Amino acid sequence: QVHLVESGGDSVQAGESLRLSCVATGYTFSNHCMGWIRQAPGKERERVVVIYRDGKIRYLDSVEGRFTFSKDVAKNTLYLQMNNLKPEDTAMYYCAVDVWDGRWCRSEHLWNSWGQGTQVTVSS
Q1: In angstroms, rounded to a whole number, what is the distance separating the alpha carbons of residues 35 and 95?
Q2: Which residues contact 28 (CB under 8 A, 6 or more apart)?
Q3: pLDDT, tens digit (0-9, with 9 covering 90-100), for 53-67
Q4: Mind giving me the DSSP string for 40-74?
Q5: What is the DSSP letter of 4?
Q6: What is the pLDDT of residues 2-25, one digit of tens each?
Q7: What are residue 19's DSSP bridge partners?
Q8: Inter-residue contact 95 to 114 (CB < 8 Å)
Q9: What is the DSSP secondary-structure string of 108-123?
Q10: For residue 81, which of 67, 68, 92, 116 is within the disulfide window of CB 3.0 to 4.6 Å?
Q11: Is residue 21 classed as helix, strand or coil in its secondary structure?
Q12: Dihedrals phi, psi of 88, to nearest 5 degrees
C-alpha cells in the first residue's frame, strides 16, 4: 500500500522560501504520474506541478520560475522548492501519485495515492 507523507509546510512572510518534502513507503517513485497539488479554502484544487510519464514537468503558470520540483531516488522522496512565496500561495499542499499504468495522466481527482497534506501560509 502506498503511503505518502508530506512535511515542510510553515507560516512565512512574503518573499521567503520553503521546501516541501514527500516521502513514500510501500512504493518506489517511478514513471507514474505524480505531482504536488494545492487547495486553499473556498478555492478550486490546483495542480502546482505535474510530472508526466515521459518525464516532462509542467508547472502552474503562477508558480513558474518560483517553484522547482525535484526527486531524490535514493531517499524515495519528492521535493517542492518554493521561492519568493506570495500570499496567494497559501494553501494545503498535497503530494500525490497515480499508480496506474495508462499511457497518459488522468485528472488528479482520479489519482489513487495522496498524502495528508502540509499547510503553507504566506503573509504579506
Answers
A1: 6
A2: 76
A3: 999 999 999 999 999
A4: -TTS--EEEEEE-TTS-EEE-GGGTTTEEEEEETT
A5: E
A6: 999 999 999 999 999 999 999 999
A7: 81
A8: yes
A9: GGG--EE---EEEEEE
A10: 68
A11: strand
A12: -70, -5
